[in-house]
Design brief:
The chain is mainly α and about 130 residues long. The chain is built from 6 helices and no strands.
Length: about 130
């Protein structure tokens, strides 16, 4: 049974407004559930930790965790819940456009002054 069928069978075709109900749907994990809760319902249930958020939060030394759940705990501990939704979207976009995995654009980074990696990162060989 897929997510869509689960919504129909378990929730009458409506998207549930609780994190617990969302993560019980097939294919929905904490990341997706947090995105839905924040974007669709305006409810801050946690910080969305995807690959971009994990990479940037480690680069900024907010967390050293590689496990998304543990990284999320570190992130929510240092932010007010009022900022969780916006922070998640902004850092994910930052990771897609500036602080990329292979070739971060440090010279264009508005967070450069906060970054412990400043001056440490070197381009990969052959680039």
């Amino acid at each position: 049974m897929g997510c869509s069928q689960g919504l129909v069978d378990q929730h009458g075709g409506e998207v549930p407004e609780s994190l617990e109900a969302l993560v019980k749907l097939p294919g929905v994990g904490r990341k997706t559930a947090n995105v839905v809760m924040g974007s669709a319902f305006g409810k801050a249930t946690g910080v969305v930790v995807d690959t971009h958020m994990g990479r940037i939060s480690r680069r900024l030394a907010i967390t050293q965790q590689t496990d998304p759940v543990r990284a999320g705990r570190d992130l929510v501990a240092c932010l007010s819940p009022a900022h969780w939704i916006r922070f998640s979207h902004q850092l994910i976009e930052h990771g897609r456009s500036i602080c990329t995995a292979r070739k971060p654009r440090c010279e264009s980074c508005p967070l450069e002054d906060l970054c412990p990696q400043k001056g440490v990162r070197k381009p990969a060989a052959g680039r």
